[in-house]
User: Which sequence fits this backbone?
């Protein structure tokens, strides 16, 4: 909407202070990764040399990278788990019961505390003489439980997923709560009157109305899952077959000193992100979440 | 039954159905709420109980572990003695507040321009913002490290802040909110001779207070909790923010005593938890505002 008296460059002036750091620290890295991924980078001389696709070939031959890729993709299991958990919690705290506000606050608490702080506590929950085993023992589900949840490759990654869901479910709960407010009351009442049960109303009234929120939440959760780093770093340090893509990038760059290899892995990660986002847009539709189209 | 009768009976029917369901489900509902609350808070409660137990012999036994044995501040005292806790908190505060301020100063004008102005490249900018929202920032860790080392800024707070202040998410949020403002109010100010800069700061921003506070709180919390980037650029322990410093301490020399570690976890979580409990009214209201 052009305003009379507003010159075109006024808009540019408004955007410029944002645009400079945005271009340098958000856009440039994407291009730079592409470029670096085709190079050998010599840290000491700050020199680069074209090496064709050697970095990508090295990736396919790297056991760590393959495992990181597999684990990061496995971590996508948290996306549906988060949606179901968050929607469930949102439905639970939606009604204005006495104390509902307190419950919302409690469910949100894990979101505001740093991963590097709470995950340390979870490490003691999961360890072989830890709280989880003690709970299993006490509940008689598994008397004398002594599983080292973080030390066994079969379980460690899933333990990290449980932690990730616990940590983030409150965030999506709030987004779903916001979405639930937009579900028309009249539709609900009409469905009730027609004798629709809870699940039928959920399936035919609530979920269709929530579609934009579901898209937003699955997008955010997917990105969260693909960039898993700290959850695993704190819980297992990358042992027990839990290394992730971003851990590989970090390790290759700052421990292995091979920035080209790290950049190639980052490019692979970027492609996966875009691909998954494209699938989600196609699946859940584009309408609504970014507001008015430009 | 005629249509009129049906219409008359409609609210009553809905009402009875609701009451019947409610009466059946209320105790169950609270039981579910309580169970979830326990699930979401037990690590904090356990860490608190362990931190308060001077005698650590019972900390692994469920459910006694949730009740402090021989309660006292012993472990908290040791944490404060052995970890430069307040230095970390100060660093975190400085870093987070500067990040919030810079983010707001950049995102507000950009969001306003996208919402209310026409300028060349506007569609392009919008598309680029969308694209960067699809990939996590952490992908840029290597190029950003190289850029900042080229600038010679490694080890400074500027380096720890800069990549985080250009928030595409923030611009989106402000744009959405500014778009929804009543056009009349902005137009009236223009008619009175205000220029766009004045319209934005004097009219649009005060009317968008929920979005501004939400963005501020979100940015604050994520800056406060950020680990990866600050740990890459900051190497001096006395410059580290809480999330980085305490993690290094907890996984290093202090890992020998569980009580010490969990007391430190409680102390480290406390500032942000308190901050949240005091601001949650605005935070949750802002998130739940359908426009934001």
Assistant:
């Amino acid at each position: 909407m052009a305003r009379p008296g507003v010159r075109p460059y006024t808009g540019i002036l408004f955007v410029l202070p944002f645009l400079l750091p945005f271009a340098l620290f958000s856009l440039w890295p994407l291009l730079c990764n592409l470029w670096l991924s085709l190079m050998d980078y010599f840290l000491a001389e700050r020199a680069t040399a074209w090496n064709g696709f050697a970095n990508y070939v090295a990736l396919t031959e790297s056991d760590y990278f393959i495992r990181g890729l597999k684990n990061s993709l496995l971590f996508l299991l948290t996306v549906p788990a988060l949606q179901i958990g968050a929607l469930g919690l949102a439905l639970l705290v939606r009604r204005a019961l006495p104390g509902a506000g307190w419950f919302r606050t409690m469910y949100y608490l894990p979101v505001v505390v740093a991963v590097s702080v709470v995950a340390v506590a979870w490490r003691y929950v999961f360890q072989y003489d830890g709280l989880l085993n003690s709970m299993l023992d006490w509940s008689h589900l598994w008397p004398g439980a002594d599983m080292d949840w973080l030390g066994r490759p079969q379980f460690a990654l899933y333990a990290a997923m449980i932690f990730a869901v616990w940590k983030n479910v409150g965030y999506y709960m709030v987004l779903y709560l916001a979405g639930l407010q937009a579900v028309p009351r009249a539709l609900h009442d009409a469905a009730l009157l027609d004798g629709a049960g809870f699940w039928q109303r959920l399936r035919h009234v609530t979920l269709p109305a929530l579609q934009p929120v579901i898209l937003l939440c699955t997008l955010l959760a997917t990105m969260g899952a693909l960039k898993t780093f700290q959850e695993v770093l704190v819980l297992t340090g990358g042992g027990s077959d839990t290394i992730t893509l971003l851990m590989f990038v970090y390790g290759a760059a700052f421990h292995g000193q091979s920035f080209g290899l790290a950049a190639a892995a980052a490019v692979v990660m970027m492609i996966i992100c875009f691909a998954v986002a494209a699938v989600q847009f196609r699946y859940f539709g584009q309408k609504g979440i970014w507001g008015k189209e430009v | 039954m005629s249509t009129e009768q049906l219409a008359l009976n409609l609210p009553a029917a809905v009402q009875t159905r609701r009451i019947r369901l409610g009466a059946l489900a209320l105790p169950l509902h609270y039981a579910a709420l309580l169970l979830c609350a326990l699930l979401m808070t037990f690590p904090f409660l356990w860490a608190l109980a362990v931190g308060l137990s001077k005698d650590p012999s019972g900390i692994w036994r469920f459910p006694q572990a949730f009740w402090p044995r021989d309660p006292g501040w012993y472990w908290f005292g040791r944490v404060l003695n052995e970890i430069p806790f307040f230095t970390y908190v100060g660093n975190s505060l400085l870093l987070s507040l500067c990040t919030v301020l810079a983010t707001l100063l950049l995102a507000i004008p950009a969001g306003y321009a996208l919402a209310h102005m026409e300028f060349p490249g506007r569609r392009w900018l919008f598309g680029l913002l969308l694209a960067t929202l699809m990939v996590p920032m952490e992908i840029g860790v290597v190029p950003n490290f190289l850029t900042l080392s080229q600038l010679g800024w490694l080890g400074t707070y500027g380096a720890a802040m800069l990549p985080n202040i250009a928030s595409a998410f923030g611009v989106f949020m402000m744009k959405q909110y500014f778009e929804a403002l009543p056009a009349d109010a902005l137009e009236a100010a223009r008619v009175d001779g205000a220029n766009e800069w004045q319209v934005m700061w004097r009219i649009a921003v005060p009317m968008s207070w929920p979005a501004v506070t939400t963005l501020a709180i979100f940015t604050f919390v994520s800056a406060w909790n950020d680990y990866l980037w600050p740990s890459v650029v900051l190497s001096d322990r006395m410059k580290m923010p809480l999330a980085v410093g305490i993690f290094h301490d907890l996984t290093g020399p202090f890992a020998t005593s569980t009580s010490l570690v969990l007391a430190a976890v409680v102390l480290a979580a406390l500032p942000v938890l308190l901050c949240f409990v005091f601001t949650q009214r605005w935070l949750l209201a802002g998130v739940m505002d359908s426009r934001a």
